[in-house]
Design goal:
This protein has about 450 residues and is of the alpha/beta class. The protein has helices at about 45-50, 60, 95-100, 120-135, 145-160, 175-180, 195-205, 215-225, 225-235, 250-265, 285-290, 320-325, 340-350, 360-370, 395-400, 435-445; strands spanning about 1-5, 15, 30-35, 90-95, 105-110, 140, 160-165, 185-190, 210, 240-245, 275-280, 330-335, 380-385, 430. The protein has 16 helices and 14 strands. Helix 4 packs across helix 8 and helix 13 (about 340-350) packs across helix 14 (about 360-370).
Length: about 450
């Protein structure tokens, strides 16, 4: 099978070898895809092969990503696979959530049950595999939490240095704790996610750091397998609609690509409609969609939302997300309020499932779309939950204590103490100015 990188710009479409360390097209600066020349294969044989691997004891078969490796054939040496048995996440029936949304039935695909608690694991296993194939010794990402947690875990398993760039004071402790525990070098940057992203992208181009944000097309190859697993769990019967949270827009882009390839290969006979839901304070794509803008991102310079995982005003993958919506005709991108997110999250919890705030935009969005007549109550709808409830427990506790505010300042301090525990293996975040020379010094680059 021939794999190659390809520019997504329809006026360019330049191809590059998969061994090239590229994040943008060097000719036109557009994003890149990993594309393939798939051989003609019997779809039923592929389905049987994927199903048979579920009972295998081979690690790459036990992975919910690499189990579909015929559909992500970019590695020349499978010894580079690093897996924590990611994927394999359930689809739940959620009757209380369905009633709240006004649907007869609603299914929730819970990616928060991945090894590090979010959908990022699906992409990080492929991203780190590619890093190993390129001989990288250090990987990096900008993150509001989930990406850093996932990258830190997979880098640790691969024996690589992990450098995490986080917006100072803008990451939930549930996520920060993971990066620290997995041994990542965690840098708290003055500014928001977009400032951190700009820095890490520049540094990855100037140094040996291998970037593992969703701008990396190999990350999205792993995340597109969410679509394959979801379809397999539905007996390859396509749902009417798939609803996905929208932050940096890599996941919706990846799932759209997975659906398109499944259709191309004859694994499914039609495409579902796709809806991307954003928080209203961080909704650049939703604003574009509402205005019919297709060529220029309507960026949000100071994104605001308590759903920190999607608090992104300059999403990298907006063009790929629009493309996914074009493939999944009949969907769209929409925004919901902080109040709607909080209430939807509580309803999901009442189904005994639970999720982080960013995931709950899906239920809030579905409810609005049912109420406005876009979605019929009889339709078969699957919402993707992207993160675990314990990623941001403070949000949940404050909501249920009736002390959750869109804007607030808090101060945490120890009033008294005794019998101190010695942190013999402490891995403290490093406060560093947003200067590349200082960051290179801290990382030893």
């Amino acid at each position: 099978m021939l794999a190659y990188l390809q520019c997504i710009n329809k006026n360019c479409h330049e191809k590059f070898p998969v061994i090239a360390k590229l994040y943008h097209c060097p000719k036109c600066e557009s994003l890149l895809d990993v594309n393939y020349e798939f051989p003609k294969t019997d779809p039923e044989e592929l389905k049987a092969l994927f199903r048979a691997r579920r009972s295998s004891l081979i690690p790459k078969d036990q992975s919910g990503v690499w189990r579909f490796r015929e559909l992500i054939p970019f590695l020349s040496d499978e010894q580079n696979i690093v897996t924590l048995f990611e994927g394999n996440t359930p689809i739940y029936d959620a009757p209380k959530s369905a009633t709240f949304a006004g649907l007869k039935k609603l299914l929730l695909k819970h990616q928060g049950l991945n090894p590090t608690g979010s959908f990022k694991d699906n992409g990080m296993t492929t991203g780190v595999a590619q890093a190993q194939a390129l001989g990288a010794k250090a990987v990096a990402c900008a993150s509001t939490g989930n990406t850093s947690a996932s990258m830190a875990a997979y880098a640790s398993r691969a024996g690589m240095l992990a450098a995490v760039f986080i917006p100072s004071g803008q990451i939930a402790y549930g996520k920060l704790s993971q990066s620290l525990d997995y041994g990542a070098k965690t840098l708290q940057i003055d500014g928001d996610f977009d400032a951190a992203m700009k820095l890490v992208l520049e540094l990855s181009q100037e140094t040996d750091l291998y970037l593992l944000n969703s701008i990396n097309p190999f990350r999205l190859e792993g995340q597109k397998t969410i679509a394959f697993e979801l379809l397999e769990q539905c007996g390859w019967q396509v749902p009417d609609r798939i609803v996905i949270p929208g932050g940096n827009l890599g996941n919706s882009s990846a799932i759209g690509k997975g659906l398109a390839e499944a259709y191309q290969l004859g694994l499914i006979d039609r495409m579902p409609k796709m809806h991307i839901i954003q928080a209203e304070g961080a909704s650049p794509l939703a604003q574009m969609w509402a205005k019919g803008e297709r060529e220029k991102l309507l960026a949000v310079d100071k994104a605001t939302t308590l759903a920190t995982a999607i608090k992104i005003g300059h999403p990298v993958s907006w063009q790929k997300a629009l493309r996914a919506l074009d493939w999944c005709v009949g969907g769209g991108c929409h925004q919901v309020s902080e109040q709607e997110i909080a209430d939807a999250k509580a309803i999901i919890g009442s189904d005994g499932i639970g999720c982080e705030p960013a995931s709950a935009v899906t239920l809030a969005g579905i409810r609005n779309l049912v109420n406005s007549g876009v979605i019929d109550k009889e339709e078969r709808v699957i919402a993707v939950l992207t993160g675990n409830l314990l990623k941001d427990p403070d949000y949940t506790v404050n909501y249920h204590l009736d002390s959750l505010y869109q804007k607030s300042q808090t101060k945490t301090e120890i009033i008294s103490h005794q019998d101190k525990i010695v942190a013999n293996f402490a891995n403290k975040p490093v406060q560093v100015s947003a200067e590349k020379t200082k960051i290179k010094e801290v990382l030893g680059l």
